[in-house]
Amino acid sequence: MDTLIMLTLILALIPITLTLILIKHKQPSKNHPPGSLGIPYIGQSLALLRAMRTNRDREWLQQRIEKYGPVSKLNLFGCPTVLLAGPVGNKFVFMNEGNVLGNHQPRSFTRILGDRIIIELVGEEHRRLRGAIGGFMRPEVLKRSVGRMDEEVRLHLDMFWRGKSQVKVSPLMKTLTFDMICSLLFGLERGHRRSELVNGFEQLIAGLWSIPVNLPFTQFGKSLRASRRIRSIVTSIVHEKRTALAGGGREPSNDVITSLLSFGLEEGPGTLTEEEVVDNVMFLMVAGYDTTSILITFLIRQLSRDLDVYDKVLREQEGIAKNKAPGERLTWEDLSKMKYTWRVAMEVSRIVPPAFGSMRRVLKDIEYKGYQIPKGWQIFWAATVTQMDEHIFPEPTKFDPSRFESQSPCPPPPFSYIPFGGGPRICPGYEFAKCETLVVIHHVVTGFKWNLCAKEDSFIRNPVPEPYEGLPIQIDARH
């Protein structure tokens, strides 16, 4: 009886199968890029995350490029994806904002931070919100901020460095950059709420690039819970600033939160909802919390490994310090003299980019390099693909700040050095991060001598680079 039923089912399926085959042959096949989408939903996500956490991400990407070429398809974080490699691919990503591509992060990223963050918006919405935020990144505003940055750095070093024989650089730099963001951008004074925010951010950030499965034991689930705690604190701060603004107690130029609230009032009801303000405050905290602290951490690491570079940085910084009175703050003009120090920072960002890469959403069916890329897919770019390319940067593993001299004989081609992105979406906080980095390095170099004491001088990406053990160093006061 069972055999008869099986034969009946097979006979019934034969015409359906033949029909599907005929339809498939009649329809032209889509000329998608080479590669495989892998297991549905998961695809290559676990393989990429594993490569990042074992510091083999560049090797993993290079193997794909060697196998499939500069354009290949894969599946990342539940979405069909196309990896574009090389300066031409980077240019396509950065210069096709709006009509062709929209910024897009993994679903885990927007679930944790919100759908209305600035990097997810396109067109006029993005330009308007960038204008509201970018007002605090203008040179005239930053010039006034350098003295306050100097204050924060001095206070931090007095609290956490002086009198110590050993410190862990990575967690301390995260604390410092977060304190500067809270003070300079959000007007949030030191206290219990600021400490709560710091405590929750490590957990929140760990799940930004993860498979979005919300279970108690998954990293995504843990990050969502941290996000809810932080969102509650930020919402209460927004309520307070809205009340102060309504009562005439604050000027829109006081901080970013007040500026965003004022922006909504000036442009008409509903322009920026409370949810949008909270989403973008959380995003700015995450962006500033990680990227600058990573750059400073790996810059300190590099100076301990390369004594020639260290000596040049020290001479430059001591030359600036000797023209300052005791306790006198750094100024914008002082930072403009730190040219070699910033070239060193640029080379650090080339070898260890703070941001691994990013995504763009395909807004309509497009053709690229002869391949069809359907609407709804995502485009993926990674900074290390070009920044560690020996054809663009000779001897890419060699640390050489002279690559970024204005008279360099081999300047990198456009869209090959992209640690801060490029095009209309280049990081709006680039100059703010530059000021922070230079102020911190000035005080660390002129105030301390140090040696690495980590058992293993390496790092992982989770998803941002993290040195093993937090980069412990032995320190001595210079004077």
TrEMBL record:
GO terms (BP aspect): sterol metabolic process
Recorded superkingdom: Eukaryota
Membrane-spanning segments: none
Binding sites annotated in the UniProt record for heme: C427
Molecular-function annotations in GO: heme binding; iron ion binding; monooxygenase activity; oxidoreductase activity, acting on paired donors, with incorporation or reduction of molecular oxygen
Signal peptide: 1-19
Assigned keywords, A-Z: Heme, Iron, Metal-binding, Monooxygenase, Oxidoreductase, Signal
Family: Belongs to the cytochrome P450 family.
Name of this protein: Cytochrome P450
Organism: Acorus gramineus (Dwarf sweet flag)
